Amino acid sequence: MRKQGFTTKIYPFILEGLLLYFLYVPLFLYTQSLPFWEYLLLLLSAPLLYFLLKRYIKTHMMVLLFVPGLVDASTTFFQFSIIAAIAIALFFYWRLIAHDEAVDEQHDFTILTYTLGLIFIDIIFFYDDKVIWMGIITIMVFICGYWWRHLHFQQRKMEGADLFGIALFLSVFFCLGLIFWGLFPLVSWTLSTLWLVITQSIIYLIGSLLYLSGFRQSDISINSSRSIDIDSAFNGLPFTGEKPSGQVTNTVSNASIGWEVTGGVLLLLFLLLLAFFLYKKKLPSQEEEVSLDKKDLDTIDYGDFKKKTRLSKRKQFSKPTLFVRKKVFEIETLALQQGIGRKPWETLQDWLRRMGMRENAIYLYEKVRYGEKDLSDQETEVFKKEIKLLQQHVNQWKSQSK
Questions:
Q1: What mean pLDDT value characterizes the chain?
Q2: Alpha-carbon distance 375 to 367, whole Å?
Q3: Half-sphere exposure for 255 (CA within 13 Å, toward CB)
Q4: How far apart are the C-alpha atoms of 200 and 88, rounded to whole Å?
Q5: pLDDT at site 146
Q6: Which residues of 384-395 are buried (b: 16+ CB within 10 A; e: fewer)?
Q7: Inter-residue contact 141 to 149 (CB < 8 Å)
Q8: TM spans, by residue (predicted)?
Q9: Can you tell me the distance from the alpha carbon of 242 to that of 234, in angstroms, rounded to the nearest whole number?
């Protein structure tokens, strides 16, 4: 296995730190506001502190002794509340002891799933411009980090096309963030109105059911002296038309930007997308290298084989002797050696689509690989063309990686 670089090690830490932010929003960031730049500074300095701790702290007991010191430092230098400092200390404790440090992209997808769920909850109940910008930063960190680690996994250097793709993604995502920020007042008003309609509808439904059951407003009282006003019970909820106390009420006025800026961003986004499609159109397609008659694939009768079945166990067998199976085995082995073979989480169909094989030929590939069935002469000729196309793709990748 190739040795992990600094970027590969620090990327999961940053991603988990962003998850920590959205987890703490309902706990203390909404009631005890933390400056946006201060949390970003903590997020950037935390990895350095983490690697320093990993160098000198070797036992769990030393980590337990370190936690009170981290709580004290957080309350002193960052002026955090006690709850926030303890939460950050527990996060470091989990990261130093309980968490597996091995690079695992499936773990990253799990972290991203939890983060997106927390972002959705925070936006609905604690809508703030800082939450929006932290969400944008989270997506950018995940995509760019995943891209970088994908290059690291393939053991190749970054090329011009990769730089163009990353720059295009960052530009488009930044433009989308500006557009969303410009529409902040409209989104806030929409969520407020939607929440008000939902709560009033629930109140009306409950009142109607009580009325049909024989209850009246005079029947609902406490000690027969104080009546309950059902509507007033919902005034404290978010987005009911009432303005909650605190500095969050000023986010609409602070986040609004001119419509001219929004229009300019939309125009810039359109130009970026146009440049991307023009660039993609100039790239040579694989179909130009090997001409494959579409009729050869469309005229084949696959019968019941088109019905997808789940393969519970992958059959193990020795190196094939038949021509088709031998070619399949050789290409799978060669692709794996070049770093473009199937990844652990990829299905057979996903890998073939990534390699550029056409959809109908995938069924032939599975038929040979797993079905233990022979192909007709027509199917064999078509499959030879697909194998030739796949062989060209692997050889081209091999020459570029040198």
A1: 63
A2: 8
A3: 25
A4: 39
A5: 66
A6: ebbbebbbebbe
A7: no
A8: 12-30, 36-53, 65-94, 109-126, 131-148, 163-187, 194-212, 257-279
A9: 10
Q: Which residues contact 218 (CB under 8 A, 6 or more apart)?
A: 227
Point out the residues of the chain with pLDDT beneath 50.
1-4, 102-103, 153, 222-226, 228, 230, 233-234, 236-258, 286-295, 297, 304-321
Q: Which pLDDT tens digit goes with each residue over 270-316?
A: 666 666 666 666 655 544 444 444 445 455 555 544 444 444 334 44
Helix (H) or strand (E) holding 364: helix 359-369
**Are the CB atoms for 368 and 325 separated by under 8 Å?**
yes
Q: Which residues pair with 245 in a beta bridge?
A: none
Whether the model clears a pTM of 0.70, i.e. scores above it, the answer is: no
Beta partners for residue 222, in sequence order: 226
| pLDDT in the model for residue 257 | 45
Give the span between the Cα atoms of 385 and 361, in whole angstroms. Answer: 10
The letter for the amino acid at 239 is: F
Place of tokens 């909820």: 237
Cα–Cα distance for residue pair 398/402, rounded to 1 Å: 7
Is residue 218 within 8 A of residue 93, CB to CB? The reply is: no
Q: Which of 38, 23, 128, 120 is nearest to 74 (CA)?
A: 38
pLDDT at 289: 43
* Closest listed residue to residue 44, CA positions, set 18, 78, 5: 18
CA atoms within 13 A of residue 334's CA, in its CB half-sphere: 18
Structure tokens at 90: 């527990």
C-beta atoms surrounding 153 within 10 Å: 14
- The structure tokens listed for 31 are 């009631």
Q: Residue 245 in 3-state DSSP?
A: coil
In this prediction, residue 198 carries a pLDDT of 82
Residue 95 gets the label, from left (phi > 0), alpha (psi -120 to 50) or beta, of alpha
